[in-house]
Here is the input.
Amino acid sequence: MSVQFIRKVTKGKPIRWYVYAYRGGPRIAVIEQPNKPKLNLEQRRKVIEAQEALTNPSQKRLRGLIWEWRRSKAWEELAQGTRDLWGAELNRIDDKWGDKPLAVWNDIRMKAKVVQWRDSRASTPRQADVGIQALKALLKHGLLTGRVTLNVAEEIPQLYKGGGRDEIIWTADDMERFRLAAIEDKAEHIYDGLRLAAVTGLRRADLVTLTWKQVGDFAIVKTALKKSRGKRRKVAIPITPQLEEVLADLRQRPRKEGVDNVLVNSRGTAWSGMGYGTSFNRIRNLAGIVHVDEDEGTKKAKHLHDVRGTFCTLLLSEWDITDKEAADIMGWSPERVGHIRKVYVDGSKVVVAIGRRIAERQLQTALQTDPAPVSLKQ
Here is the structure.
């Protein structure tokens, strides 16, 4: 079992190394330096303790439950993106409560302590909510295996109030600014993912795992990594002229031998979900792409997931399909698709029609006032 070193490079900041006791294990240190660090005695001691705990965790403490869940079939069935997201939170939970006896989690008073932990992270509300989700799922596993008798993380309200993003899509201007920022950063391969998302509506996990074998003559067909109502559904996306154009460009990207992924990074290898997400957000921030709430005047960053709304508008406006057909492709409800149609498709058509009528009336008025032909020569 080896120590894991993760190198993070952020433009304008020192190179940072995240050191973990083992892959998926607790974080030991964060070190800023250009080269791979060597661990000091204290850091080595923490590695040894963590690895020993891995092989012989106390079955009477929360750390033992975390160890058990991470090796269960239920954990293996989670999407890789979920395991990455919850795994980071489990490390935090282990740091805070790993040594606590499991018995204390059967006391309803622990709910107040969990809420205090959530509130202490209020500066990053979405991440705080993810922490509660991970703890709730962990204790649910504990209930199923008879390790605890209560799930104190149940029914804790979310801090993040920025849900309901149906009205947020990426505009053509957003995509062009992203493209220019990617070019300036010499990261055009990151723009490839945005283009592919805009013409397929795929989620991040499905974007980075899409292979050429799944691209047919008339449609892309793959099994979605994210579960819907406990099951993975088949994703079927028609090959539109816009998608065909993007795929033709992506076929030209250099790839290492044996790599069949449609999207590849600068090294010609497949992206990881977290790797692409981090790179995408970096370019988005460089381009300053945000959504402005017209009622409140507040700003919030647009997400890669919001590009799915852009694809939905493409289906509705360019191909004149029904809400039900679009909902089947998107994996959404027809009501949600109807909201997108009302805001971005039908509304635009109405405005264009009104503008056309105004222009026609102005022309008629001009002809009635001055029926003589207008000369273009001065």
